[in-house]
Amino acid sequence: MTTLNLHAKQDFLEREAKTSDPIRAISELVWNSLDAEATSVSVVLEKNGLGGLSAITVTDNGHGIKFEQANHDFGNLGDSWKRNAHRTSDLKRAIHGKEGRGRLRFYSLAQRCKWQTTFESDEGLKSFDIEIFANALERCEVSNVKSPSNEHTGTIVRLQNLKDTFDNLDSVDAFREFSSIFAPYILQYTDAELWYNGYKIDPNIIVERWHELPQDDIQLPNRTVSDLRLKVIEWKNSIDARQIHFGGEDGIVLGSQAAHVTAPGFEFSAYAYSSYFQELADKNLLELDDLNDPEFLIVINHIRDELGDYFRQRQSEKSLGVIQELKDAGAYPYEGDPKDEIERRERQVFDIATYAVSSYSKDFTKAEPSLQKMTLTLLKEAIKHNPDELSTILQAVVNLPKKKQTEFSALLKKTELGNIINASSLISERIVVLEILKGIVFNPKYRNTVKERGELDVLIRDHTWLFGEQFHITLSEVGLTRVMGRVSEEVASKRKGRKITKKDGKTGRVDNFLGRLVPNPDPAKREYLLIELKRPSLTVARKELDQVEDYMNAIKDEDDFARTDTTWHFYLISGSHANEIDSRVNQKDRPQGLFLEGENYKVWVKTWSEIIRANEARLKFVQDQLKIEVSDSEIEARIQELQKLVTK
Description:
disordered N terminus; eight-stranded mixed β-sheet; six-stranded mixed β-sheet; ATP-binding; alpha+beta; Heat Shock Protein 90
């Protein structure tokens, strides 16, 4: 039997070593220094006579590499001493590397990499060199052990014959990217000191704020990620790119992706730690900038949502000082505390927008308080009635720069506050309408005087949702001929205005006509609603039932509608009905109020109380959540407005 040993070849090693990010490649060498318990690590960019980058060195004062360890670790990919170690031996720091891949990252930067290391042996300090060439990654040249030239342990890694100019490495952006990777480590291990091209990584100087978000579980299709920790560092200065850095449960950064989180006015880096990311790193997947694994997408979208919530809160916090100044100057258009949940949400949008205005509009900040108040009042009304158009509003009202318009609009769109305000305002208005309707039909002051051809007609015409969300056509006070003409338009009929009459030959009138297209695979299907309104003081009897039945018969027997896929709902609405028709209104095995039912029609008899009660039941939960209250004075004023409309 023959035993074969598997040897890694150049093409495989190149794939393992390659990275598109030069800072990431340098960082791997720094992590190796920190894993060797270095308390000082320095990255130096060496220049040639023309000022170009000629070499990169990473120098540390760690334990160095023992000769026996080098023969094992540099001779194998995987099976590193770090694989079974979670902490360093003396300082008990978390260990970054596991597989021994990090030493090969130089391949993306240089043709040649040399390690000069000094370690403590039984015979005192000893030193030796290790060298790897980019075109022969499978080979490693190790020198003999010799006496060291320096007096302490440590390693110098020198990258020579660079593959590109790498001008960006000598930039502020590169320093900030390097800082964003190692700042959490330095905050955790204060004995570690890092330098990049002569500048020290000092979190106290570069970090504005450090915050850890509450831990939360993430449910994946086949598992639960329950150990996710999410931290945010806000930087004092601008950074080239906002990123989410992924780390294992030990808090070591293993990979990064663009944040894609809207946070106007903030420079930040986010750090997500979980054993889940360690699993991805072990498979070398975190190196992929466009990793689209379904589980990973769920996790990163959760992280982005959490960060979005965090920065909306931070935005509100930053706006507090500005808002207080405007209040002190008398320019803030709101008074007191929010009266309900709707106004609270409106103010949240308004305060964020106001912060944007005050921060970036010089014209606004220089204006007198009276002009500021007028501007903010316009902004308030615009947000209240059309929050989705905030970008246009900011441009029109305060001439906010285009970039800032887009940024703040994106922030508010991601919060879906526009949708919340629109929906909340809709519910609020419906609750008010119900209160008005109750006032009209129940309050003796109006009940005995209101007519169907008046306030009720106007109210129903403008609020057809009372009979269902699906009805979208409203024609008030129309004869049946016009009703059928309108229906003809809907179903593309050829009708040319021929009169529709009842069985007695007389023309009929309905108080309101509402219609809708039923969602159906067949576009020819239609559904219509006819409503006969009666004043609240009227008790309907046989006469009124016969009247609505006549209307129904006049339409359903028409030749060009009898055979179409059309459904009709007829409603007779009043204050009450006489006992003599109770058996016709409430029949066994039928819903309450269903008077007649045919193949394509239903005739209902309902009271105003039933209509109001059904709508209140639908809206109650939302009303309770939004804490919407309507005062008697507001209802009285709205009814008076309604009466004015009727008398015009």
